[in-house]
Every structure is written in structure tokens, then in C-alpha cells.
């Protein structure tokens, strides 16, 4: 069913690479979902207008946009894109009565309690404790993180964070060597610098440097394509290290929040790795916390396989606000 003009509501999920939009019908279902390249548009208002144009530019009343950034005040400046805009000016430009902006992993967290069956693929053992905190982590252009805690009224509260910008820590000599290469190049080596699209590229380059082989100008998609095809040895190692570092960061997050409700892996990269990810060092690295191995082995880890989960979370935010 197409939404009527009186009820037209938009949801969005904007990352450093992809800006996804959909309209919400009267039943809260997503309609006309489409992904636009973030870099093709000057700012949020321009991207929304480009999305609406082929639909006959229907008048919008309300929108909830999840974005890969902290929301602090009216001025929004994206970390992994040149976008910079005022939320209030965007609301006025789009003629909206209400524009709700939230962090993309906060939106993803809001969607998690409703996911079930094939929308969640469990990796390894453990089982979720009813009502216990859940955490989310997901590499895309950047590395998103958030947590989800249940309030006394039984409602889940999504807590956005910027854990992707916490400091990357090595767990073995080889990772220390890789980080040593990156420490020479970057002011601060955050987890995002090794666990994201850019991170996969950084890992590949650092490994090629350590191995003394020519560094090819490979993008993240090409590194993972080579790795999945068992091609270039440095690409193979880069993807293995990427999965291990993601597992280790997920384990840190689970320990920090006491996430007995489970760890949920989102973002654009892991779903593109197919069955490789389940067989990767992710879960082993997640559990490899010395005296806390047993604790972590009881916490389940899931890959989010749902279509456009952050858009569903943005729709939830619109309902709630
Ligand atoms: N097959 C692949 N393997 C690994 N990385 C890939 C692959 N395809 C694309 N990427 C990388 O994934 C990233 C884009 O991820 P995603 O689709 O989640 O975008 P996004 O939502 O805009 O990101 P974010 O929300 O983190 O800003 C880019 O860095 C890109 O290079």
C-alpha cells in the first residue's frame, strides 16, 4: 500500500558510503526503499530531495534519519563524509513538521528486539539471558557500536556510543607489528582504523609492508574478493585479522556492558562475506579473554541478516518520539 499524502513519513540510514531511504506506510511497513551514494549529494536535504524526485516529490510530514555520527546539538558534521548541515535548517528546507535525527547504531539497536528466525544467524555457542543488556557492533565505512538495556517499564532503551573510536589493542605479536606500522602513520589508531572498510585497506597495506611485497592500491571490496578467492596472501591475512580484531573488539564490548543478552553484528561488510565469516577467527577471538573465556563462551553472538534493519529502527524512533 502506498502512503497517503497526509501521513507521509520518511526513514533514512545515512552512512559514509550509502544513504538508504524508504517511505513508511500507515501500517509502519517500508515502501520504495532505495540506496543512494552519499558522496553524490551535498548534504542530507539534497539526498532526500534526490530520493523523492522519482516518486513525484510527495510532500513529507515527518522523518527519522539514522546517521553514522553522534548527534550533538543542531550542527552535524559527518566523520566519514564531507556532509555538514544544520538539522533545523534541513527540517525547514524539506518542509517537515518533525525531523528526528538519531545515531545509526542507536536505530539498529531499536530494531534488534523484534528480529527473529533467519534475521539472526548465531555464531558459536551461548544463549541470550532474557532482559539482559545487548550490544551491537558493525563495520561499514566506519565502525558503529551501541548497546541496548531494558528499563523498569520493560521498554528497551538504545544507548549510542562511539566505541569505534576507542583505541585499538593488539592481542599477539603479529597484530602488534601491524599496529606499529599504523602508529607511524596515524595520530591515533582507533579500532575503526582496523575494523571497517578503511580498516581492511589499512590492514592489507600494513601486512604488505611488513612482508616486504609491493603494496597494491586495493579497495576494501577488492581485498575481501581476493581473500575469499584464496588469492593474494596479504589479502587473505588482512581479512582473517579483520575478523579476529572485530571478534576481540566485540568481546571487549560484551565484557564492558555485561552483555548477557547477546552481541549483534551489523554494518555493511560482514553480510558481504557470506559463509566465510562463520568459519573465520571472529568467535575464537571473541572468547579469547584469558580468565574470562568461560564468561564470554556463554554470551551468544549473532550476525544481523535482516533487510535494512536500521530503517526499521528509525521507524521505531519515529513512533516513540
Ligand atoms: N565486499 C566487500 N568486502 C569488504 N568491504 C566492502 C565490500 N564492499 C564494500 N565494502 C566496504 O564497505 C564500506 C561501506 O559499508 P556500508 O555499506 O555499511 O556503508 P555505510 O552504511 O555508508 O557505512 P557507515 O554506516 O559505517 O558509515 C566501504 O568502506 C566499502 O569499501
UniProtKB/TrEMBL annotation:
Spell out the molecular function terms from Gene Ontology. Answer: ATP binding; D-glucose binding; glucokinase activity
Its main subcellular localisation, reduced to a broad class, is cytoplasm
Q: Which reaction does it catalyse?
A: D-glucose + ATP = D-glucose 6-phosphate + ADP + H(+)
Q: Where does ATP bind?
A: 12-17
Q: What is its EC number?
A: 2.7.1.2
Q: What InterPro entries does this protein map onto?
A: ATPase_NBD, Bacterial_glucokinase, Glucokinase
**Which keywords accompany this UniProt record?**
ATP-binding, Cytoplasm, Glycolysis, Kinase, Nucleotide-binding, Transferase
CDD domains in alphabetical order: ASKHA_NBD_GLK
Q: Name one GO biological process term.
A: glycolytic process
Supply the enzyme class, top level: transferase
| Cellular compartment(s) | Cytoplasm
Which cellular component appears as one GO term in the record?
cytosol
Per the record's keyword annotation, is Protease included, yes or no?
A: no
List the HAMAP family.
Answer: Glucokinase
Q: Which NCBIfam families match?
A: glk, PRK00292.1-3, PRK12408.1
The family annotation for this protein states: Belongs to the bacterial glucokinase family.
Question: What is this protein's record name?
Answer: Glucokinase
* Organism, scientific name: Azohydromonas caseinilytica
Amino acid at each position: 500500500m502506498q502512503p497517503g499524502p497526509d501521513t507521509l513519513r520518511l526513514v533514512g540510514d545515512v552512512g559514509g558510503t550509502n544513504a538508504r531511504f524508504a517511505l513508511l506506510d500507515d501500517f509502519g511497513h517500508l515502501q520504495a526503499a532505495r540506496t543512494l551514494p552519499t558522496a553524490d549529494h551535498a548534504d542530507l536535504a539534497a539526498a532526500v530531495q534526490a530520493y523523492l524526485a522519482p516518486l513525484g516529490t510527495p510532500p513529507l510530514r515527518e522523518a527519522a534519519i539514522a546517521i553514522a555520527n553522534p548527534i550533538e546539538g543542531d550542527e552535524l558534521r559527518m566523520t566519514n563524509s564531507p556532509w555538514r548541515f544544520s538539522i533545523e535548517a534541513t527540517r525547514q528546507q524539506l518542509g517537515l513538521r518533525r525531523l528526528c535525527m538519531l545515531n545509526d547504531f542507536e536505530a539498529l539497536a531499536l530494531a534488534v528486539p523484534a528480529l527473529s528466525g533467519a534475521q539472526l544467524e548465531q555464531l558459536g555457542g551461548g544463549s541470550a539471558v532474557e532482559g539482559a543488556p545487548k550490544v551491537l557492533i558493525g563495520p561499514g565505512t566506519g565502525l558503529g557500536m551501541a548497546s541496548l538495556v531494558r528499563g523498569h517499564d520493560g521498554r528497551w532503551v538504545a544507548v549510542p556510543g562511539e566505541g569505534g573510536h576507542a583505541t585499538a589493542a593488539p592481542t599477539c605479536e603479529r597484530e602488534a607489528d601491524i599496529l606499529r606500522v599504523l602508529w607511524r602513520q596515524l595520530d591515533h589508531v582507533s579500532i575503526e582504523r582496523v575494523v571497517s572498510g578503511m580498516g581492511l585497506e589499512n590492514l592489507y597495506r600494513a601486512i604488505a609492508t611488513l612482508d616486504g611485497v609491493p603494496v597494491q592500491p586495493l579497495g576494501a571490496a577488492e581485498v575481501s574478493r581476493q581473500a575469499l578467492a584464496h588469492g593474494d596472501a596479504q589479502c587473505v591475512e588482512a581479512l582473517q585479522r579483520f575478523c579476529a580484531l572485530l571478534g576481540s573488539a566485540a568481546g571487549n564490548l560484551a565484557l564492558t556492558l555485561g552483555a548477557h543478552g547477546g552481541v549483534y553484528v551489523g554494518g555493511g561488510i560482514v553480510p558481504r562475506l557470506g559463509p566465510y565469516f562463520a568459519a573465520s577467527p571472529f568467535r575464537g577471538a571473541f572468547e579469547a579473554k584469558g580468565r574470562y573465556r568461560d564468561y564470554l563462551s556463554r554470551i551468544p553472538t549473532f550476525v544481523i541478516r535482516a533487510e535494512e534493519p536500521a530503517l526499521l529502527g528509525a521507524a521505531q524512533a519515529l513512533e516513540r518520539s
